[in-house]
């Protein structure tokens, strides 16, 4: 299977502006050349520490649609995000569509990238999900607690850790009120409040997905939160699952037991205090263990994704990892699944 090609043309002064400050949030004008025609786009760098890597990631806007072109520089397999989002779709949690591409800029090959659908208004429109607001959890302050996780001091604002993507001041206040009441109520009053303001089933499936894939960074940030316009409840969507399947966000092996079965963050802790929620969560985990988180279900996708990009990875000289390491990744992921299944089965008896 040949990978789709994205040809980007960007004029000299626009390219200079892009490269002048890798931390800038400003878009510059460019074009995608498709069958001889030029389609205008906006483009900028994206990411955190990855902006200073030799191979950087991009965000583009084309025809009012936003996409992320991820270099996946730290992932030696370059398939962990794609595999994770497929896994979430299997277990019933909306997640971005992905595809691997070959990226060229001004006729220079930048190598293999992962094109990821942005979680924005269009994401939900395509899935016919009516939404009122969208928030990105951008750092560890998105832990649903009153206090900063590092300083342990009271946050300046309960909106700390979030970025408003869609909505206004009312949406921002609603989320702050949700976090405040989560931290002030208890017992039956808290359960009643959570049942009326959170899609608990969606949240537990998301939690199970983060637990199975081993995304240690996925509980306090690297998620999108949205409020359903009709049901008036918050739901959650996964984001940035590069550090998964046995490797951390820098690509280092981290073992299969890094993430405990009950996950992290204050909302999770509060929910799992209720026996009916724990029972529901246990059923979700057991169902995924039997039907989805298996080598039989997952490895054909791993092998297909890996083989699709293998010839192009071999010629991608911008990569951080050796080709031999890339070649060993399917076995690495298989071993993670086998070990993780054993660990989860053991912990399920104690839940």
Protein described:
This protein has 351 residues and is of the alpha+beta class. It has 2 domains: 5-117, no CATH class; 123-291, no CATH class. Helices cover 38% and strands 21% of the residues. It contains 11 helices and 11 strands. The protein has helices spanning 12-20, 80-90, 121-126, 169-184, 187-197, 200-213, 266-271, 275-291, 295-314, 323-327, 329-348, and strands at 5-9, 28-34, 37-46, 57-62, 65-70, 98-105, 108-117, 131-137, 162-166, 223-228, 234-238. The strands form 2 sheets. A 7-stranded mixed beta barrel has the order 1-2-3-4-5-7-6. It has a 4-stranded antiparallel beta sheet with strand order 9-8-10-11. A hairpin with a 2-residue loop joins β6 (98-105) and β7 (108-117). α6 (200-213) crosses α8 (275-291) and α8 (275-291) packs antiparallel against α11 (329-348). The longest helix has 20 residues, at 295-314. The model has no long low-confidence stretch (mean pLDDT 96).
Summarize the entry for a quick read.
With 351 residues, the protein is of the alpha+beta class. It is built from eleven helices and eleven strands.
What would you call the quaternary organization? single chain
Outline the biggest β-sheet.
7 strands, mixed, barrel
* Low-pLDDT regions: none
Shape: globular
Total domains, how many? 2
Average pLDDT over all residues: 96
GO molecular function: kinase activity
Protein name: CotH kinase family protein
Pfam families: CotH
Organism: Paenibacillus residui
């Amino acid at each position: 299977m040949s990978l789709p090609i994205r040809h980007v043309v960007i004029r000299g002064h626009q390219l200079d502006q892009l490269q002048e400050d890798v931390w800038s949030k400003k878009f510059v004008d460019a074009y995608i050349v498709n069958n001889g025609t030029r389609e205008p786009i906006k483009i900028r760098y994206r990411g955190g520490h990855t902006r200073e890597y030799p191979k950087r990631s991009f965000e583009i806007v084309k025809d009012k649609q936003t996409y992320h072109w991820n270099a996946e520089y730290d992932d030696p397999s370059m398939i962990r995000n794609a595999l994770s989002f497929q896994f979430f779709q299997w277990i019933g949690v909306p997640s971005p569509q992905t595809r691997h591409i070959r990226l060229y800029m001004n006729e220079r090959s930048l190598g293999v990238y992962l094109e990821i659908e942005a979680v924005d208004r269009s994401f939900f429109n395509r899935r016919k999900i009516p939404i009122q607001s969208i928030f990105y959890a951008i750092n560890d302050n998105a832990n649903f607690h009153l206090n900063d996780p590092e300083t342990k001091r009271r946050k300046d604002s309960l909106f700390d850790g979030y970025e408003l993507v869609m909505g206004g001041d009312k949406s921002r206040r609603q989320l702050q009120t949700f976090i405040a009441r989560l931290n002030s109520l208890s017992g039956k009053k808290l359960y009643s409040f959570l049942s009326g303001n959170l899609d608990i089933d969606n949240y537990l499936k998301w939690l199970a997905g983060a637990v199975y894939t081993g995304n240690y960074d996925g509980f306090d940030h690297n998620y999108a939160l949205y409020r359903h316009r009709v049901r008036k409840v918050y739901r959650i969507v996964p984001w940035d699952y590069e550090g998964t399947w046995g490797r951390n966000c820098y690509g280092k092996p981290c073992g299969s037991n890094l993430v405990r079965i009950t996950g992290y963050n204050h909302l999770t802790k509060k929910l799992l205090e209720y026996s009916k929620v724990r029972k529901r969560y246990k059923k979700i985990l057991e169902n995924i263990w039997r039907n989805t988180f298996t080598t039989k279900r997952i490895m054909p996708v791993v092998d297909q994704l890996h083989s699709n990009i293998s010839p192009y990875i071999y010629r991608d000289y911008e990569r951080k990892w050796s080709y031999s390491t890339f070649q060993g990744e399917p076995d690495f992921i298989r071993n993670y699944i086998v070990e993780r299944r054993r660990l989860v089965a053991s912990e399920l008896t104690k839940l």
